[in-house]
Amino acid sequence: MLPSASSGAVDPEDRKIIEKLAKLQNMYTQIGDLRTLLPEKLINPARVALDNPGDYEPAKLAAYLQTAAQAGSRDLERFKKDWHSDDVRELWQTVHANDFPQGGDAWAFDYASLLRDAAANEQTSITEKDASRDFQPPSDAEIAKTVNDFRARHPELKIHVSNEASLLPIDISVSRFDFRVEKTQSPGATTYNVIDKSGSEASGVYDMRADVVQSIRESKERDRLGNLLEMIYSFHDLTTRRCDKCKKLLDTKHLKLPVIRQADPSTPAEQLPQFLAFHRLCR
């Protein structure tokens, strides 16, 4: 894993260039992944199957190759979209307008991680300032509006409310998981606790439920109900979503899914956050 360029502080004047470097760095990673698409994901599996016909079912092999090809096509389209974006065009104009020495084929720092750390530090600072003021817990009406807005954004989710006045606690079914969200009140703070209510059949190969719930409880979103609900929703594609860092579904050491969710620092401040997915080893 590449080191972060600092402990998390980013000068406001540097943020724009850091964001562009992070995007360029992500494209560099995409190029590496696209290079492996044809040989590793399409040609080699087909070659192995042809050499060992008794070990592979044609239908399953065809389904795998189709899925790999479709995923690769989406990755290629995403790369093309990034490549032709205004940010990258501006970067190339800067490169062509100046005399830069040829660098090595490597990145000294992880700029995306630097942005995430900076965003987390800024949010912590804002939270500490807010906490120093007179604390006003959210009213039942405010909580109800947050929950109802969430239900309107995701009508496909199965949501059960226990109290129509405040709508908390609520039960949410996302993918193979059943969560309960409860409010916890303490002097000067309101937080929201998430409980796993899934049945034993949901665990799969390893105790994925415990991993997911631990990730939620470790997050910085537990004191912001709207953000927390969106974070829970972000697990709807857990079994198919790749890590935003290494671009793989399973980590290489523990063969676990990317259960960590972190708010995307590029999300506009006035919008609810989009969440990035990471393996514990990649964050």
Automatic annotation (TrEMBL):
An example Gene Ontology CC term for this record: mediator complex
Source superkingdom: Eukaryota
Keywords, alphabetical: Nucleus, Transcription, Transcription regulation
Localization, UniProt: Nucleus
A Pfam family that the UniProt record links to this protein: Med27
Family matches, as InterPro entries: Mediator_Med27
Family: Belongs to the Mediator complex subunit 27 family.
Protein known as: Uncharacterized protein
